[in-house]
Amino acid sequence: MKAAVVIEKDEHGYYAFCPELEGCQSQGDTFEEAMANIREAIELYVETLTPQERIERLSREIVTTSVEVKVA
Questions:
Q1: Nearest-angstrom CA–CA distance, 35 and 2
Q2: Disulfide check for 38: which of 16, 33, 50, 69 has CB 3.0–4.6 Å away?
Q3: CB 40 within 8 A of CB 16
């Protein structure tokens, strides 16, 4: 299964979360570390779900993109 992941860089490193799984989040000093950590967090989180909950939560389509905006 696939899960959506959002990763944000800040002054402390990288923060990652899965919008499909409430409360499923992690962090890392590098992008790669944050990716490895959120993957592990998602795998552990999914183990706590029933098969039906897995289907319901991980079958939603989440699209992340960016838009250009004008700043005055």
A1: 13
A2: 16
A3: no
Per-residue pLDDT, 40: 98
3-state secondary structure of 34: helix
Strand partners, 27: 15
Q: Which domain holds residue 52?
A: 6-58
Distance of CA 41 to the CA centre of its chain: 9
Residue 69: inside a domain: no
pLDDT digits (tens, 9 = 90+) for 7-64: 999 999 999 999 999 999 999 999 999 999 999 999 999 999 999 999 989 888 888 8
Tokens 């700043």 sit on residue: 71
Q: How far apart are CA 38 and CA 2, in angstroms?
A: 13
Helix (H/G/I), strand (E/B), else coil: 31: helix
